[in-house]
Amino acid sequence: MQHSLTILQAPAVELSTIIQQELLSNPLLEISEDKPLEDQSLEGLFDEKEKWYDYLGPNFEGAQRSIEDERKRQFFFDSQVVPPSMASELSRQLSLVCSDNTLLQAAQYIIGNLDERGYLNTELENIAHELGLTYDLVEKALELVQSLDPPGIAARNLSECLLLQLKALGKEDSLEFRIISEYLTLLEKKKLTEIAKQLKVSLKQVQEAVESIRSLNPFPGSKYRSEEKEKIIQVDLMVVKEAQDWKVYFNDEFMPRLRINHHYESLLSKNDKDPSLKNYLKEKKRSGLFLIKCLRMRENTLLKVAEAIVHCQKDFFDSGPHALRPLTMSEIAQKINVHETTVSRAIANKYIKTPHGIFELKYFFNSGFQKQTGEFVANQTIKEAIERLIRNEDPKSPLSDQQIVELLAKEGIKMARRTVAKYRAHLKILPSHLRRIS
Q: Which strand ranges, in their side-by-side order, compose the sheet holding 245-250?
């Protein structure tokens, strides 16, 4: 079960490594240069009704593996050319510290929604609504994920990220903790004298605390990134327009088709006197067939998810990013009759090539706002509108967040100033007084 879930969630680069490991360890498994293994060869190995969501539904039990299983799995990951992803490593830790099914479900969903920095940008209310759980339980799940390594993971902003790291170091009563909690804005402006004055401590004490703060990691997810990996993106899916319809295709350019070696398989049918050899070959055949089936299920699941996304986001594919509409994983899960957690795992670190560029599948999932006309607009579209307004502003008189609110209102988008400030921060755009060029 765990192996099948790993295959579903694995991005193309990591999956290639997994397949190579299996080819090296299983003499019955080989790459097929011709057509793929016939479906009949898989009869009896799986129930026809078996789906990913059988593993991931409400009754999904968390991984309960023995110490020996953990050692084997760790050895497997240590031997990979590509290191394990942030999601797979956090999931591994999670399985060791939690056995409550509902809490596991919420925690896995949170892990699946972390960005490359290790931050959670999804509101807890939205997660609770998506999963049909209480806010308190989702909040408890977040605390569980935040207790994992590296410290600071799953923070919702820079302040929380740094405070989590200080808590992990046992510095909740420290000067550093107070500075981040109460004076982060002054710290960003390097007003150390003002901080010292308000805290009634010496400037030297503040400077020492700041040096300690600088040793913290503002992007805990960065430990799972490498320069080489960032340059390599293998596209899992492609969308092309045929006639008047958009068609989704699975990209198998980097994904070899596998089959069972007929020579070794024939040894099983012979009346061999060596029962240990027959048992070995029998187990390897089952293992090979299992991998082939998992790869097929992964391909089918990705295609179904992508086809549902294309159907829901048709305006995006017709017109471009500005036409992106609000979409939740729950909507896609209902369309293809799977659990939300299946969708979350399926889209993790997967990329799709479109006429408008290459996008991560997560890009197409947004909450949103309702315009005054009644039309819904996605958060991503609003972010692009904010970015457009700031890009075209007068650098000598940059737009304030309030002015952006007023300009968006003219476009029919009514939202609070603090929401604009949050989106601007997500876009890594400085406030107006720091953008001004005299």
A: 245-250, 237-242, 351-354, 357-360
CA 235 to chain centre: 16
- Structure token pair of residue 124: 């807890």
Neighbours of 243 (CB within 10 A): 6
Distance of CA 236 to the CA centre of its chain: 15
What is the SS3 assignment for 387?
helix
Q: Max alpha carbon distance in the chain (Å)?
A: 89
Q: What is the DSSP letter of 31?
A: E
CA distance 325 to 416: 20
- Mapped onto helix, strand or coil, the DSSP state of residue 137 is helix
Which tokens go with 8? 């579903």
Residue 328 Cα to chain centre, angstroms: 14
C-alpha 341/C-alpha 232 separation (Å) is 27
Take residue 352 and report the two structure tokens written for it: 């799709």
* pLDDT tens profile 239-270: 998 888 899 998 877 777 788 877 766 766 66
Q: Which has the closest alpha carbon to 210: 178, 172, 167?
A: 178
Q: How buried is 37 (Cβ within 10 angstroms: 0-12 exposed, 13-18 middle, 19+ buried)? A: middle
